[in-house]
User: Fold this.
Amino acid sequence: MELKNAIYKRRSIRKYAQAQIPLEHIEKMIESAQMAPSWKNSQTARFYVAHTEKAIEEMRDCLASFNKERTENVGAFIVTTVVKGISGYVNDQPTHLGNGFECFDNGLSVQNLLLTATELGYGSLIMGLYKPEKIKELFQIPTTEEVVVVIALGKADVNPDTPPRLPLDQILTIK
Ligand SMILES: Cc1cc2nc3c(=O)[nH]c(=O)nc-3n(C[C@H](O)[C@H](O)[C@H](O)COP(=O)(O)O)c2cc1C
Assistant:
């Protein structure tokens, strides 16, 4: 699939049909995530995958209730975390964005992951509303990391239209 197609075809999917995802596909997604740029190549994104039926159900219990409803039948969840206090720091001092570059790096890697998922034929949904402490307990995530997003992956059972985007003249300034 052409990059442009993947960019424009990817949609947030909130209804899934039953289907499994081979682990090789998950690995391809994570490898593409690793190719994203990061602050001083610090590579602070980490990935935790729920792949068995049991782990998937445990993960669904960690989600906000409306996200739990939207993720019935998913084939996997990927939790992204950031190793805190590295990306965006110069001599232990943060920039004007505070620790914002940590999540910036994470987002860059997540978009690569989503585009690869689209190319492999999967629907996906990023979720920012979940119970972080429950997820940390489930995966035994070290205290040096913070959870960023949870990504649902599976076979889309809907084909949503593109939600409207702002017109260019509202978001673009050229001098
Ligand atoms: C950081 C982040 C958190 C999000 N959290 C949720 C969520 O908790 N539940 C949900 O259904 N969608 C969530 N979304 C999906 C957005 O609503 C969606 O990307 C947006 O409406 C644009 O639609 P599109 O992804 O189809 O282009 C989230 C997206 C991002 C980037």
